[in-house]
Amino acid sequence: MAKMKSLARMHVFWPGLDQQIEQVVTSCNACQAFQSAPPMAPVNTWKWPTQSWQRIHIDFAGPYLGYIYLVVVDAHSKWLEVILMKSATTSKTISELRIIFARYGLPKELVSDNGPLFIAEEFKIFLRENGIKHIKSAVKHPASDGEAERFVKISNKQ
């Protein structure tokens, strides 16, 4: 659109020219169909963990039938834990993670998206106190979250 505006200004001018060009382009189906998409962030290729529970990926799925599901995937074994939750809050998420960690041990790394529950101060403190490194996936690029996001995507198709 910037090139179009520049080219138009080289030949003509009237008040509101830029706005009119923007209106024409946004209402033009062919323009929208051939508009190039913004560049995607590079996908993070995850290093294969050497042992189970070294790195876990977490995300939320749902709502399905009035419930939210906390999805936890071990990056090494692909072991999947799905926890049914009536509501997703930071404290409830931490409570469920404590139960899982009591069963399998503490992971070294936890990968999540930048959802409000995962960037809350309470969640940061929980991870820090347990010596867990928090890796956040790229903003506007949930596919870089990896394992948990893949499960959520598959479950959304069901």
Automatic annotation (TrEMBL):
Domain of life: Eukaryota
One example of a Gene Ontology biological process annotation: DNA integration
GO MF entries: nucleic acid binding
Membrane-spanning parts: none
Coiled coil: none
Domain Integrase catalytic stretches: 38-158
PANTHER family the record matches: PROTEIN CBG26694 (PTHR37984), PROTEIN NYNRIN-LIKE (PTHR37984:SF5)
Record's protein name: Integrase catalytic domain-containing protein
Species whose genome carries this gene: Holothuria leucospilota (Black long sea cucumber)
